[in-house]
Design a protein that fits this description.
The chain has two domains: 89 residues; 241 residues, Bira Bifunctional Protein, Domain 2 (BirA Bifunctional Protein, domain 2, 2-Layer Sandwich). It has eleven helices and ten strands. A hairpin with a 2-residue loop joins β7 and β8. It has 352 residues and is an alpha+beta fold. The strands form two sheets. The chain has a seven-stranded mixed beta sheet with strand order 1-5-6-10-9-8-7. It binds phenylalanine (PHE). The site of phenylalanine (PHE) has 11 residues, from β9 and β10.
Length: 352
């Protein structure tokens, strides 16, 4: 029995020398110290030994177990050190390598300009009201005082979606943000029909027209509409508001000029020019030597439009204006072709 213990110890220590990694070490531990190892077998046979032999054999077995266990933890530590040394020499870290580049997304120049316009209008007390892209002829034209076959419709070549079964009220893609005037007025008037509340809102949105696509015209573009309705609102409020807007948008010295114009839904109507911010009004290629840049259309809300929105024109007045973010972005960044906006060319978009 003593020889057998000696043999077990010898084999265990010899095979331990060949163990090189953690996985092999674990296998070794199961084979030599585990429940069904030869050493544990000895312990289980202990009870069958003659009484007088037990102390000697027991001592020898316990000693062998201690030696084997001590060698095991020594080996385990050595393997840990080997592993660490290997990692330190093999997995070299080159701190001089350049960092990995990652591409950051950014906002479309049109979105940036749109947000800037809306932020300025918000500071001036205009609340954003979103309206729909698919409209009806009624909202896009009729309620805005464009009668059927009115020649002013030709100013806006319309993309119709569905005419069949809809009589004189086909579905279309909105050609401007002005139908939002009716939608918002009706929304607010419905809150209190006998006493509609005053309104001061901004209406952003994509507009669509059946245009030939050229450097200067696209089939889609954004607009931001402003609308204020209340008691005692005058043309002076419109002028002051837009002069203030221009200073906030284009700089403290930006002067504006109003030119009389025509829209069916405003009376009187005007187009607004801002002094060219490229040349300061002296004349350059951006303003075509005129010193002025046209930036928006505006006017006092037509009584018929107020009426259609649920606001009694004998009591309420209002003003409206509409502008295009792409046009302003083109002027600001000297973009000479509107087709870049929806062309999805990264080389263009990455510049903003
Ligand atoms: N809707 C007009 C256009 O598309 C702009 C406009 C808006 C004019 C509001 C007057 C008042 O050009």
């Amino acid at each position: 029995m003593l020889e057998r213990i000696e043999q077990i110890k010898k084999e265990a220590l010899e095979s331990l020398q060949k163990v090189q990694d953690e996985a092999a070490l674990e296998q070794w531990r199961i084979a030599h110290l585990g429940r069904s190892s030869p050493l544990m077998q000895v312990f289980s046979e202990f009870g069958a030994l003659p009484k007088e032999e037990r102390p000697r054999i027991g001592q020898a077995a316990n000693q062998a177990k201690q030696v084997i266990e001590a060698s095991f933890s020594e080996r385990a530590q050595a393997i840990q050190e080997m592993k660490l040394n290997r990692a330190l020499t093999e997995d070299t870290l080159d701190v001089t390598l350049p960092g990995r580049d990652f591409r950051r997304g950014r906002l479309h120049p049109s979105t940036q300009t749109m947000r800037r316009i809306l932020a300025i209008l918000a500071e001036m007390g205009f609340q954003v009201f979103t309206s729909r892209e698919v409209e009806t002829d009624e909202y896009n034209f009729q309620l805005l005082n464009f009668p059927p076959h009115h020649p002013a419709r030709e100013m806006q070549d319309t993309l119709y979606i569905q005419a069949e079964g809809r009589g004189d009220n086909p579905l279309l893609l909105k050609t401007h943000t002005s139908p939002g005037q009716i939608r918002s007025m009706r929304y607010f008037a419905a809150l209190n029909p006998d006493n509609p509340p005053p309104i001061r809102i901004a209406l952003p949105g994509m507009c669509f027209r059946a245009e030939q696509i050229t450097a200067r015209s696209e089939v889609q573009f954004n607009q931001v509409e402003g609308l204020a309705v209340g008691e005692g609102i005058t043309y002076a409020d419109l002028k002051g508001t837009l002069a203030d807007f221009a200073r906030r948008m284009f700089g403290q010295n930006a002067r504006v000029r109003f030119r009389s114009s025509y829209f069916p839904f405003t009376e009187p109507s005007a187009e607004v020019d801002v002094e060219c911010f490229v040349c300061g009004g002296k004349g350059c290629s951006v303003c075509k030597q005129s010193g002025w840049l046209e930036i928006l259309g505006c006017g006092m809300v037509h009584p018929v439009v107020l009426q259609n929105g649920g606001y009694d024109p004998r009591r309420y007045t209002g003003y409206a204006f509409g502008m295009g973010p792409e046009r302003q972005a083109m002027l600001r960044y000297r973009i000479n072709d509107i087709r870049y906006f929806w062309g999805n060319d990264m080389r263009f978009l990455e510049q903003f």
